């Protein structure tokens, strides 16, 4: 699916955006650059386990652009929930806005915002020093290009979502994804479903897939 999107700059550089999501587990957002027609920023959303009222997902963000990096103060990722979803916890990232959680008297979620915004952490943040991190996280929102550094062109965080039920029958895709950088912002239309992401274990003896 190809949709039109714009950089949020004064002169509004028009781009093309290609978007794909795999079975509630894979989000791909591709921003077009005429100097690098195959370059893109890919966001992969892998649901790794169900919970009593939702699921746990690992979100990977990878910069496949040759010439454009994401500088400090870094990226901001946001979307709009389809229903009354909440974010119980995040690891390796922070939710900028808590929203209205008044209906929760105990066990208050990290965020009840209808359109949450996710910020990256740095290695010096309190959450990280307390071992609240996952592999590949916590780079202060900075993403080098794939050519500059394979390791530093990608980042990850974990998110626990509630209010969705415990099976993929009740899970719903968020909408209105936006990826903001200091140089502009990408936005995209509704995602579509594609095949699930597959994972190979470190010893290459076992293959699993996202839900």
From TrEMBL:
InterPro entries: COBRA_pln. One of its GO terms (cellular component) is plasma membrane. It comes from the Eukaryota. GO terms for biological process: cellulose microfibril organization; plant-type cell wall cellulose biosynthetic process. Residues 1-31 form the signal peptide. Keywords: Glycoprotein, Signal. Pfam families: COBRA. Belongs to the COBRA family. This is COBRA-like protein.
């Amino acid at each position: 699916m190809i949709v039109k999107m714009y950089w949020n700059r004064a002169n509004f550089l028009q781009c093309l955006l290609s978007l794909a999501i795999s079975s509630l587990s894979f989000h791909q957002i591709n921003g077009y650059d005429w100097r690098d027609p195959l370059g893109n920023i890919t966001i992969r959303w892998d649901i790794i386990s169900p919970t009593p009222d939702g699921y746990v997902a690992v979100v990977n963000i990878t910069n496949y652009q040759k010439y454009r990096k994401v500088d400090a103060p870094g990226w901001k990722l946001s979307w709009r929930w389809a229903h009354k979803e909440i974010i119980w916890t995040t690891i390796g990232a922070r939710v900028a806005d808590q929203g209205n959680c008044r209906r929760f008297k105990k066990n208050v979620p990290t965020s009840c915002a209808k359109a949450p915004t996710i910020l990256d952490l740095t290695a010096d943040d309190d959450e990280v020093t307390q071992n609240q991190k996952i592999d590949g996280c916590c780079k202060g929102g900075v993403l080098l290009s794939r050519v500059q550094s394979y390791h530093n062109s990608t980042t990850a965080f974990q998110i626990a979502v509630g209010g969705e039920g415990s099976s993929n029958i009740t899970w719903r895709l968020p909408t209105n994804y936006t990826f903001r950088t200091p140089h502009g912002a990408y936005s995209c239309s509704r995602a579509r479903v594609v095949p699930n992401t597959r994972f190979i274990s470190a010893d290459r003896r076992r293959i699993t897939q996202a839900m």
